[in-house]
Amino acid sequence: MHITSPAFKENAARALADPGLQKALGTAKGAFLQRRAAAVANLPEFERLRDIGRDIKNHTLANLDFYLEAFEAKVVAAGGKVHWCSTADDARAKVLEICRAAGARTVTKGKSMISEELGINQHLEAHGIRPVETDLGEYILQLRNEPPSHIIAPAFHLNREDWEADFRRMHTDLPADRVFAERRDILAEARSRLRERFLAADVGITGANFLIAETGSSVIVTNEGNGDLTQTLPRVHIALASIEKLVPTLEDATSLLRLLARSATGQDFSVYTTFSTGTRRPGDLDGPEEYHVVLVDNGRSNMIGTDFQDMLRCIRCAACMNHCPVYGAVGGHAYGWVYPGPMGSVLTPSLVGVEKTANLPNASTFCGRCESVCPVKIPLPKLMRHWREREFERHLTPTVARAGLGTWAFLARRPGLYRMATRLAVGALGLLGRGKGSFRSLPLAGSWTRGRDLPVPEPGGTFMARYARTQRGRR
C-alpha cells in the first residue's frame, strides 16, 4: 500500500507550481458546480431527499449485521456466492483465487475505488493475470501508470492534449494524421482498442454503488456502458464492494440514486444504471455463469459506534471535493492515497491511521461547503476537527504549533490577560507597520507571509475594544 499523505505539504506545493495541472483544474471544476446547482434547482424536494438518504444510511449502519446476512441469503438463492474479507490481504487473495479457478489470463474492470484501495491491479499483475481498465479515464491512467485523482472523474488532472500524447505514445500504430479534436474522438479510439479485450476476458470485476439486501443485487452507475460489458460478457463476474454500500430495499436504492447522479455530475440519472442479481438463468440472453460478491471490511467495522461512523454514509458522489477550495487548488494526487478531498481527509485516517495522515484533516479552510452539498449530510468539518483533536492528543502536531496553541489557550482562559496581550500585539504591529499597508515578512509569521501579506492593523485598537465602543455609542 503506497501512501504519501505525510508529504501532503510538499505534494501540494508541487501541484500549485504545475501549470498543466492548474489548467486542468481551472477547466474542469466549474462545470461540476454549475451542473449540480442546476440539477438541484430542478428538484424541489432535494433537501427532503437528503434527509431521507441520511436516514436510510443511518438505519442500515445501526442494523448492518442483520442486513449483511439477509443480503448473503438472497445472493446464494440467486446462484451467487458471498466472500467475507476482513482485511485487504483477504480480499486480494480471494479475488486471485476466483480468477485462478476460472483460468483467467485477462480480467476486465469497471471503475472501482475499492479496487484501488486494495491494489487489485498490482496484485493480479504480480501473479500473471492482466487487468484491463475499461472506464475511459481509468484506461488512460493505466496507460500512464498513474492512480486516479478524483473518485468519479479519475483523469480530472489531465488536459485533452495529455490524452492525445499518451494515446500516440502507447498506440504506436496510430496514423500520424489521426486527429483527436474532441472527446468523442478519444472515446472512439479507446473503444476500438477495448472491444477485443471485452470479448477475450475470462473474468469481469466491477465495484458496486449499492448492494440491496432485499434482492441480493449489486448496482453500478456509469455513463459509458463499460460496466455492463464488464459484468455480462465474461463467464465470471466479481462484484467488489465494502460493507457500507449496503441498503435494505430497492426503494431505498432508488432514493439514493436520485441523490447520487445529481450530486456527482448534475444528471437526473446516469446514462446506465445496472442492477445485477445472481448468475445467468435459463432463457437469459447474457450474464455470467458465476457471480461472486467480495465483501470487504478493511477497517470499516472499527468506525461503527465511534465519532467517525457518519463517514460510512458516504455514497461516493464527490460533491465535497468538487466544491472544496483546497482540492480545487491542488488536485487529488496531493492527498497521497485513494480518497482525496474532504471525504478523504476523514476516511483515510480512519482506514490507515492518523499517524500517517495527520496533514489531511488540516487541509481544510473549514468553509463548510463540503457539508452543505453532501447528499447524505455528513458533517465533514466536524469529523475533520475530531481528527485534529486526535492528532493533538497523540502529540503528532509539530512542537511549534503545539506551543502556539498552548500559549493561546493559556491566555484565552484568562480574559483580562488576553485583552492586555492583544492590545500590546496590535499596538506593536501598528508601530512597526507605520506608513506601510502590510508586512511582506514578519518574525514568527513566516508561514503566513511566505504566501501572502499581513495587513497592518488599522487605528482603533483590537476588535473587542472597537466593539465595546460601538455598543456604548448605541446606548
UniProtKB/TrEMBL annotation:
Keyword set includes 4Fe-4S: yes
Entry GO MF terms: 4 iron, 4 sulfur cluster binding; metal ion binding
Domain annotation 4Fe-4S ferredoxin-type: ranges: 305-335
Highest taxon of source: Bacteria
Alphabetical keyword list: 4Fe-4S, Electron transport, Iron, Iron-sulfur, Metal-binding, Repeat, Transport
Family annotation (InterPro entries): 4Fe4S_Fe-S-bd, 4Fe4S_Fe_S_CS, FTHF_cligase-like_sf, Helical_ferredxn, LUD_dom, LutB/LldF, NagB/RpiA_transferase-like
GO BP terms in the entry: lactate metabolic process
Pfam families to which the protein is assigned, alphabetical: Fer4_8, LUD_dom
Keyword Transport: yes
NCBIfam families assigned: LutB/LldF family L-lactate oxidation iron-sulfur protein
PANTHER family, per database record: LACTATE UTILIZATION PROTEIN B
Record's protein name: Iron-sulfur cluster-binding protein
